[in-house]
Write a structure and sequence with these properties.
Helix content: 40-55%
Distance between the termini: 62 Å
Strand content: 5-15%
Number of strands: 9
Radius of gyration: 27 Å
Oligomer: single chain
Number of helices: 19
Largest sheet: 6 strands, mixed
Number of domains: 3
Mean pLDDT: 88
Structural class: alpha+beta
Shape: globular
């Protein structure tokens, strides 16, 4: 079946071909002309029964209306122009959209469409490498949004594991984690000489899980690392065949670890009680289960929509404003490149994720309301430092959901017009005129941006370093 825009153009084509006005079509179908106008402009999808009535009135088979091809070359150009002007690359320019009126000559329309094609081509050409990884990340984010970040099969596996070792609630201890590992034939070994490119290593031959002697930077606790290692066996993972499969495996093991550290039933019970008291706070959820702030915020994304009925968004942003990780099912207008990827894109200066860096006191969460092109959002942000680099963790919800959260009385409120570049990226005309050609700045370049991932069995892992590590420990006593 045609999409709404193409369907609307096909209805308009056959209506004008039949010589009917919108009012006349409305009289013959019993539907107001204003409603047909919305349908023809792709703003509303008609019921099949209404399409049947329209086809009968226009004297064409209903299947003619439902075909997925534009009715004419002109209509195809009009549809392409409309879609291009609703895309991020055009919206970022801050220019008004130009409607293809009936009086617009075909050659003008072709020129406009050609310019948009070139704009998109240049945007694609400017993408940072590796593009494959960005596209795979985007597909994973879209998949998570489609399931509200909830994976019931892994929830069930995690419940089985925690129940098998008698864990019923509260923080999962290192001893309990070791018991879960033992159930699958593994011993946890702490070692200070981990490969530089690896967070943990599993040796199936000896049944060992190697992890660092202390929590590594970035919020990856030792319990989580060990559980992620066990998860590969629980989920029957094999060596990934491509980067997308690697990402899927990473998502699944991270989810499993979080679901063990913060089991479904006690977590939902804790969060539901906080919601009833209108006092949800990620810092409380974090402390109740003894995890990092980021882990608690990510686990909240798994449970909030399915179990509490709350749409939300999550952001991890580096000190320079670049997106490290993002999720949303509440229509937050994430910064996107032409492919739909938000990885490495810069978030608006007015968002809580960046405003929080300006605080002098960072021991507690920062709260603010943010007005965006998609509505107002309430956000709570916690900042931190990893590898001497600042980062922020943000959990946000639409304005109507703020009533359930601590900090909703905040008077901090900022307006964002992004992706319009005039919001916070494009200088004012006065500043641009004042300083253009009179200054020079040396950019702080992240070298990893230009580096491909190491060519190993596992993306990002140096095979030689990994195998030399395993060989060095092969003779160790259990």
């Amino acid at each position: 079946m045609a999409d709404a825009v193409t369907l609307g153009r096909r209805i308009r084509h056959f209506r004008t071909q039949a010589g009917y006005t919108l009012d006349q079509l409305g009289e013959r179908t019993g539907v107001a002309a204003s409603q047909w106008s919305l349908i023809e402009n792709g703003k509303r999808e008609p019921r099949l029964s209404l399409l049947t009535d329209a086809a009968k009135a226009l004297g064409v088979p209903v299947q003619e209306l439902l075909e997925d091809a534009p009715p004419t070359e002109r209509a195809a150009l009009e549809i392409e122009l409309e879609r291009a002007q609703s895309g991020h690359a055009f919206r970022e320019l801050g220019l008004p959209a130009l409607r293809a009126s009936r009086t617009m000559p075909d050659d003008v329309l072709k020129t406009l469409v050609g310019m948009h094609r070139e704009l998109e081509r240049r945007a694609r050409a400017a993408l940072a490498t590796p593009e494959e990884a960005r596209r795979a990340n985007t597909r994973q984010r879209q998949y998570l949004r489609s399931v509200d970040s909830y994976l019931p099969q892994i929830e069930a596996l995690a419940d089985l594991e925690t129940a098998a070792v008698g864990h019923t609630g509260g923080a999962l201890t290192h001893r309990t984690v070791a018991e879960i590992a033992s159930r699958h034939g593994f011993t946890i070994v702490h070692t200070a000489d981990m490969p530089h490119s690896a967070r943990c290593v599993v040796d199936h031959e000896s049944g060992r899980i190697y992890i660092p002697p202390a929590s590594i930077p970035g919020g990856h606790g030792l319990r989580s690392l060990a559980l992620q290692a066990v998860a590969h066996s629980v989920l029957d993972h094999e060596e990934p065949s491509d980067y997308e499969e690697f990402l899927t495996q990473r998502l699944e093991v991270s989810y499993f670890a979080a679901a063990c550290l913060m089991p479904h039933e006690p977590s939902v019970e804790f969060l539901q009680a906080a919601k009833n008291e209108r006092n949800i706070a990620i810092e409380d959820f974090r402390d109740a289960f003894g995890v990092t702030h980021e882990a608690a915020a990510l686990r909240f994304t798994n449970l909030a929509t399915v179990d509490l009925g709350i749409p939300l968004h999550f952001l991890r942003v580096s000190g320079d404003g670049a997106v490290v990780r993002a999720y949303e099912n509440d229509r937050l207008p994430l910064p996107l490149d032409v492919t739909g990827s938000c990885d490495g894109e810069i978030v608006c200066r007015e968002w809580s994720a960046r405003r929080a860096f300006a605080r002098s006191t960072r021991t507690t969460e920062y709260y603010q309301y943010t007005d965006t092109v998609n509505g107002t959002f309430f956000e709570s942000t916690q900042t931190g430092i990893a590898d001497a680099q600042e980062f922020s963790i943000t959990l946000g919800v639409p304005y109507r959901e703020s009533r359930w959260f601590r900090g909703r009385e905040s008077t901090e409120r900022f307006q964002s017009k992004c992706p319009d570049a005039s919001c916070c990226r494009r200088p004012t005309n006065d500043l641009a005129t004042r300083w253009r050609g009179k200054a020079w700045a040396s950019a702080r370049v992240h070298q990893h941006t230009f580096s491909p991932l190491p060519h190993g069995t596992y993306p990002g892992i140096d095979d030689r370093e990994l195998y030399e590590f395993l060989e060095a420990h092969a003779g160790d006593e259990s």
